[in-house]
Amino acid sequence: MSVVHPELVTGRQDGFVNAPWTVKPGSTRRGEASCNLTERILEVPLGIDATSRVVRAHELMHARVSPHVIDHYGALDEMAHRALECAEELRINTLIARLDFDVSLLCDGSEKGGARRIAESDDWPEALCFLMAVLGTGGEKPFLAGIRQVDPSWMPGLRAVRKRALGLMDSLSSAALGATILNDEELPSGYANSTVVLARILTQSMAARPPTTPDELRSFRRSLEPGGRRPPTGRFARLVFDDTVPMSTRPRGAGLRRPRADSSGLTMRYPSRLLTDERKRAFARRSNLHGGIVIIDQSGSMDIDEASLSTLLRRAPDALVVGYSHRPGDHGSTPNAWILADRGSVVTRIPSGNIGNGVDGAVLEWALRHRKNSEPIVWITDGQVTDSHDHPDDRLTVHCAELVRRHRIRLVKELEGAGRSLTCGRTTSRSQLSQFGRLGRKLLEMKTF
Amino acid sequence: MVPSVEAFEEALSCWRDLADVLSAGLSRVLLYGPSGTGKTYAALHHGVGNNAAERLVCTEDLTSGEITGTWMPVGENRWEWREGPAIRAWRGLGGLGGRLVVDEVDRASGDALSTLLAMTDSPESARWRNPETSEWVRPGPQFSVVMTTNIDDLDDIPLSLRDRFPVSIRIDRPHVSALTSLSEDLRGPALAGSLGPAGRRVSLRSFYAFDELRRHLGSPRAAQLVFGEDGATGVLDALTIGSIT
After folding, report:
1. Coil vs helix vs strand at B128
2. pLDDT(A432) > 50
3. Contact B243 A11 (CB under 8 A)
4. How far apart are CA B229 and CA A169, in angstroms?
């Protein structure tokens, strides 16, 4: 049985206190060796064979260079935990390979089967992460072979990320890669300059659609480069409401009185309906209109002011008004929707948008769930529908167009027109649709609109 | 890799405790902890002034005579009383008292232990009569005792002995000054080598030997000779991984 000496692994410069470690016997199988820096527990295989030795070296390298503080003041909030975990695996494997440990032995035979399962379950994010964890090791080839067997269309995308990851590691010396001196964000600099950079790339690529066409691949490759635009994801982000927006009750007006056709009443206002309306609703009944739902796109191309909101609420004091705008690439840390007015109360300060749309469909569906009876829904939009990385997307545009058509959602360009649209009782006419960009064009293509 | 400031700070903390206790004039201190960290060295040299410290290494065979003194033949039919290290330390230079260092106190036998209890009693109670001169000897005013032991658990030391040593300091790593003659890359590991449990400890002496040998034989061979066939790979791998710069 071999002896492992975590206490002798010294040289950290990030305040990690040298103290005794607990060593537990692990194995060379994937997931059965670990390094817990917080509690100083090292679980490693203790065999005298070469594979056990490399696994021990891998875990000892974690003890040498991986961050030991969990709280990093939000610097890592935007990154997927799995992306960070697997990017760190690549850094560790790169470092031990440079010290001449034989990383080709890091392979337990489960890689090919695991890859097949990942591809069969269409888990592109996990395919990317797992590739990082096995990159450069003996597990890489069987893993890629497993993916290729099930979904070869993923290969170009995976190869692009592989190339970028290896390029990033190659660009840093071992000293830079393993540096533990803390940066301004209290992160070990080696971790910040390699693992975090790669995890950021991985996180955005995980959200992306696997590139299949040459154009998509080109755009995907560009997204991997520094400063590259995030690749298209083809889906909306999760709707995250901002619950901290302060609200106050608003002096309530009477709303707008408007006549409605009815089958009984005092004044016969629509005699023609005796002939045209099978329910013969020829009488007029005055009713107050108070509500409705107004959805406001507050992305970079749209803007609203308090005066317009007040005007709207004078006409529809009980309206539910919701604003939305998604920060491209955000994974839930930044709210992308907020209530601006809620059936009588109103925000004291209008939150600003986060540049992108990103949740158009999600917010429409939310509004439909909160619709009372058949109250009108008005959508203030420029007709642009984008995915969570703020790329216009045909499929998502069609989805929104279908919601608009099926639920008779009224489209308006500016907030000033929302009040009128709420009360006029008419949906957007075909002639107006051309003002609404891609969305308008899709609606025009739908013959039954 | 040169140990970081934090590592020095940590390493100094137990030694700072010892220095504080000795400089405050406390005359009974027990040092315990892993071997090879320099406890005995510190006991023999820190705070002894011009006196040479008297050292007593306890074993199961240690007798009372080796503590207080024994009759020695000095000629035909003549014997002379030779005072032992404890009495010599009581006296010190000019009767002022000196330092008695009792090493590996946990290994002392029952007979020797009772004599040690008498020798380390409070200055007011401690006294011993010279069998040759009948002189009553008492510890000098500057007499101090530092006991050392390699055990990790203080409970393994007899309660009566511990009672005489109200201050016990765990020395778990070498004094940084003891590292200066080591190569730079070994100082950090040497500072931390005594932290692990018994099976994983690497003493300062081992690092000195490894450092010396590797200059002539190279690291793999030196490690094999110092840490053994089984231990060499583990130590070398840890040193290699720690040395990323």
Report:
1. strand
2. yes
3. yes
4. 35
Pairing outcome for strands B136-137 and A377-380: unpaired
pLDDT tens digit sequence for B108-136: 888 888 898 889 888 888 999 998 899 99
Cα–chain-centroid distance for residue B9? 22
Instruction: Give me the pLDDT at residue B2, please.
Output: 45
CB < 8 Å to B235, chain A: 5, 8
By the 10 Å C-beta count (0-12 exposed, 13-18 middle, 19+ buried), A167 is classed as exposed
The pLDDT assigned to A32 comes to 93
Q: Is the Cβ pair A3, B200 closer than 8 Å?
A: yes
Q: How far is A25 from chain B (nearest CA, A)?
A: 14
Place of tokens 């691949």: A217
**Amino acid, single-letter form, for residue B82:** R
- Taking the C-alpha atoms of residue A425 and residue A440, their distance in angstroms, rounded to an integer, is 20
In tens, the pLDDT along A309-331 reads 888 888 888 889 999 999 998 88
Q: A249: which strand partners?
A: A345
Cβ of A8 within 8 Å of Cβ of B231? The answer is no
Q: How far is B193 from chain A (nearest CA, A)?
A: 6
pLDDT at position B35 = 82
Give DSSP secondary structure letters for B96-122. S--EEEEETGGG--HHHHHHHHHHTS-
Residue, of A252 and B189, whose pLDDT is higher: B189
Distance set, CA A286 to CA A216, A273, A374, B193 (Å): 56, 17, 18, 90
pLDDT at A257: 59
What residues have CB less than 8 Å from A199, skipping those under 6 apart?
A76, A79, A80, A83, A84, A87, A88
SS3 call for A279? coil
A254 is written with which tokens?
A: 């009477």
pLDDT band at B82 (very low <50, low <70, confident <90, very high): very high
The answer on pLDDT for A124 being more than 90 is: yes
Residue with tokens 């970028």: A164
Q: Pick the range with the lowest mean pLDDT from A66-80, A103-117, A252-266.
A: A252-266
Q: pLDDT at position B1, please?
A: 46
- Residue B82 backbone dihedrals phi, psi, to 5 degrees: -105, 115
Give Cα A212 distance to the centre of its chain. 21
User: Is the CB of A3 less than 8 angstroms away from the CB of B230?
Assistant: yes
Q: Are A181 and A150 in contact (CB under 8 A)?
A: no
Would you state the torsion angle of the CA atoms of residues B127, B129, B130, B134, taken in this order, to the nearest 10 degrees?
Answer: 140
Q: Token pair of B238, please?
A: 């840890």
